């Protein structure tokens, strides 16, 4: 197997089993059943520290905010708070969970393109660190509420710089034709800034952009930084705008399969810093704080999913389908984005490869395919399939389609396992339902 997929504490132990956090995955399966999400928590912490250290080493003022839509739950919020990370939330539900985790309010940044009144009020009540304002509708509401409450609030304006990161088109949000943010090129961003700077309780700290996801090159970030800084220079001269915070979003890539070649974290960060330093020097603006928002790159490759192998459909000369006991309900990314994953048989990792299987989920949907053409040893129903890099947008996007309960989430570290989220029961599935007769 490709050893580069064994990130963090993952390894193959003497029993030829996949091990994570010092624990044999097969013993986790015996204890918790399948499907099962497992997070190598020391790796999450390590990544968080690497992002922060990359800025500290260069003595750059920065905030590293965990984009928590990638994986949101009480325990991960508690972990991120302990690591002194900032936190992005995009909904009242994520905010509520952060509040339950006693997340330091000033470290919370609120995103989203259609924040409701109730969500805005909840965030004002908790007195979060900033709103990332997406549109005129939100800006006006925020103006009204802050005036009514005589409450100051910091904001960043989310702008679309018209830069396209090289990635799947469904997850590209930086181009002009996007539902997010104020367009930099058509004057709307400038108009929003003019309005916001006149609002009595609103402090515009700076600008935000997010140019895409699963980005492997630094050019997109550099282009976006250039545009935002040059534009800020014009706005500084025309209306006295000071760019104190430049938030360049997230999107740092991870390895899902052997084809992916992500940059080391410090390379992404050093490049961001170099670019901000060089362009601000060029246009003679002070160095702003740099904020980033990694989601996937903090939790993605720290997570694996374990499944029990089940039925097979062998179509001679066509394809071998191998079904597992989960699928699009616990990982919708292959169906939604054509995302690629790879995996191994966790109970005999290094056995010789004999077959090629396409891994099918158990949902009544032909599109419920997890992996196409995966080379594996000859599999049978005692085997456990481990799929790598499922820590981001897996549990977070899980559904109950076909009334399949969501799997539990286990954190592992130093030989200990912690049940972060219990397995849903059938009764849980019905807890909101009322009998008609
Ligand atoms: C989704 C998102 C992120 C995180 O993206 P990743 O690819 O998971 O790093 C960061 N910022 C914003 C605004 C986002 O929408």
UniProtKB/TrEMBL annotation:
InterPro entries linked to this entry: Ala_racemase/Decarboxylase_C, DAP_deCOOHase_LysA, De-COase2_C, De-COase2_CS, De-COase2_N, Orn/DAP/Arg_de-COase, PLP-binding_barrel
Keywords, comma-separated and alphabetical: Amino-acid biosynthesis, Decarboxylase, Lyase, Lysine biosynthesis, Pyridoxal phosphate
Record: active site: 364 (proton donor)
Binding site for pyridoxal 5'-phosphate: 251, 293-296, 393
Domain Orn/DAP/Arg decarboxylase 2 N-terminal: 42-299
Pathway terms, separated by semicolons: Amino-acid biosynthesis; L-lysine biosynthesis via DAP pathway; L-lysine from DL-2,6-diaminopimelate: step 1/1
EC code(s) of this entry: 4.1.1.20
Gene3D superfamilies associated with the record: Alanine racemase, Lyase, Ornithine Decarboxylase, Chain A, domain 1
CDD domains per the UniProt record, alphabetical: PLPDE_III_DapDC (cd06828)
PROSITE patterns: ODR_DC_2_2
GO annotation terms (biological process): lysine biosynthetic process via diaminopimelate
Chain ranges of the Orn/DAP/Arg decarboxylase 2 C-terminal domain: 37-391
Cofactor list: pyridoxal 5'-phosphate
Residues the record lists as binding substrate: 296, 333, 337, 365, 393
UniProt keyword annotation of Amino-acid biosynthesis present: yes
Organism domain of life: Bacteria
Molecular function GO terms recorded: diaminopimelate decarboxylase activity; pyridoxal phosphate binding
Catalytic activity from the UniProt record: meso-2,6-diaminopimelate + H(+) = L-lysine + CO2
Residues the record lists as N6-(pyridoxal phosphate)lysine modifications: 69
Signal peptide stretch: none
Cited function: Specifically catalyzes the decarboxylation of meso-diaminopimelate (meso-DAP) to L-lysine.
Family, per entry: Belongs to the Orn/Lys/Arg decarboxylase class-II family. LysA subfamily.
Alphabetized NCBIfam families for the sequence: lysA
Subunit and partners: Homodimer.
Protein name: Diaminopimelate decarboxylase
The species this protein was found in: Carnobacterium inhibens subsp. gilichinskyi
Gene: lysA
């Amino acid at each position: 197997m490709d050893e580069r997929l064994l990130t963090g504490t993952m390894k193959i132990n003497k029993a030829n089993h996949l091990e994570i956090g010092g624990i044999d995955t097969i013993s986790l399966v015996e204890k918790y059943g399948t499907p099962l999400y497992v997070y190598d928590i020391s790796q999450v912490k390590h990544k968080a520290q690497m992002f922060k250290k990359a800025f500290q080493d260069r003595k750059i003022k920065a905030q590293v905010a965990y984009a928590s839509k990638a994986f949101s739950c009480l325990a991960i919020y508690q972990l991120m708070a302990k690591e002194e990370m900032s936190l992005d939330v995009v909904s009242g539900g994520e905010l509520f969970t952060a509040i339950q985790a006693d997340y330091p309010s000033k470290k919370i940044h609120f995103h989203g393109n259609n924040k409701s009144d109730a969500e805005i009020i909840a965030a004002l009540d908790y007195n979060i660190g900033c709103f990332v304002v997406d549109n005129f509708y939100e800006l006006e509401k925020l103006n009204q509420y802050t005036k009514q409450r005589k409450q100051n609030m910091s904001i960043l304006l989310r702008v679309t710089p018209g830069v396209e990161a090289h990635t799947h088109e469904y997850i590209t949000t930086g181009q002009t034709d996007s539902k997010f943010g104020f367009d930099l090129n058509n004057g709307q961003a400038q108009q929003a800034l003019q309005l916001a700077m006149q609002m009595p309780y609103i402090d515009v700290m700076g600008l935000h952009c997010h140019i895409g996801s699963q980005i492997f090159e630094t050019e997109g970030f550099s282009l976006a930084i250039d545009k935002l800084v040059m534009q800020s220079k014009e706005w500084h001269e025309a209306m006295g705008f000071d760019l104190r915070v430049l938030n360049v979003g997230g999107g740092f890539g991870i390895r899902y399969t052997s084809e992916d070649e992500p940059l080391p974290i410090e390379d992404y960060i050093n490049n961001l810093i170099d670019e901000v330093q060089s362009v601000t020097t060029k246009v003679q603006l002070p160095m702003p704080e740099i904020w980033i928002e990694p989601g996937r790159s903090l939790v993605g490759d720290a997570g694996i999913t374990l499944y029990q192998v089940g039925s097979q459909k062998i179509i001679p000369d066509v394809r071998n389908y191998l079904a597992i006991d989960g699928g699009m309900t616990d990982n919708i990314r292959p169906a939604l984005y054509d995302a690629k994953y790879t995996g191994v048989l966790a109970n005999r990792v290094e056995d010789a490869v004999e077959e090629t299987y396409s891994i099918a989920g158990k949902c009544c949907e032909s599109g419920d395919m997890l992996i196409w053409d995966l080379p594996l040893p000859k599999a049978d129903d005692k085997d456990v399939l481990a799929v790598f890099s499922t820590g981001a947008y897996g549990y977070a996007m899980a559904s109950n389609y076909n009334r399949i309960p969501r799997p539990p989430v286990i954190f592992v570290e130093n030989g200990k396992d912690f049940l972060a989220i219990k397995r849903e029961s059938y009764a849980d599935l019905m807890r909101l339902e009322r009998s008609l007769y």
